[in-house]
Amino acid sequence: MRVCSQIRMLNALLDSGAVSKLPTPFGCLLIDFPGALAYYAPKLHQEYSNKLGQLVDRDPSLLWNFNNSIYPTATVNFGPSAVCYDHLDFGNRAAGWCDITAAGPYDYKKGGHLILFDIDKVIEFPPGSHILIPSAVMRHGNTPIQSHERRMGLTQYAAGALFRWVDNGFQKAEDVRGMLKERLDAEAPTRFEQQLDLYSKLEELSEDRIRVFGRSGSVDEG
Questions:
Q1: 128: domain CATH number?
Q2: Rounded to two decimals, what is the model's pTM?
């Protein structure tokens, strides 16, 4: 029965088309989600849009999970106690940002805290909280909740292999030949630094938003 309920919930989530309109326990909690990545990392969002857009354009069978989210992958943890140990998400885009959202009900003062181990931060994470972190390189986890409570999680992310597939000319790395291979080999030593250049410094954010989107205010996609 629990599995059937979760399947119905997952189908409702996907059928909603937009994470701000989810008819699920996440529904009223995600109103402010769309635009977060674009607003705080406009150059990174542009990279996601360009590369993943090429992938979708090339393969018509691929569909976006939500019409207002740039992320190609979403994982729903229905709980009842969605708790993660200290870990890294090695398969994600190395400098990419993973989107994490929690839903309740649980007492966030007593449990469900987000832990960012590399920077020694323990953060209260109430139901409906939402954060963007580079989950492939920043160790993270969360604390347990009380036994009678329930905690669920929605995580959105992009696998690094998707970007590599596009960069490799839509082929495996071992199949790349000629000038493309020479260029990729030359770029390899500084590839992570190039990804970090897609981050915006606080004093650069407004200018980067204008450069990418033509305006400095909010945008419509996550």
A1: 2.60.120.10
A2: 0.83
How much is the pLDDT for 30? 45
pLDDT tens, residue by residue, 42-70: 999 999 999 999 999 999 899 888 877 89
Q: Is 133 within a domain? A: yes
User: Would you say residue 117 lies in a domain?
Assistant: yes
Diameter of the chain measured on Cα atoms: 60
Q: Number of folded domains in the chain?
A: 1
Q: Could you write out the DSSP letters of every residue in 139-167?
A: -EEE----TT--BEEEEEE-BHHHHHHHH
Q: Is residue 158 part of a domain?
A: yes
Strand order in the sheet with 114-116: 121-123, 114-116, 140-142
The pairing of beta strand 130-133 with beta strand 98-103: antiparallel
* Domain span holding position 41: 34-213
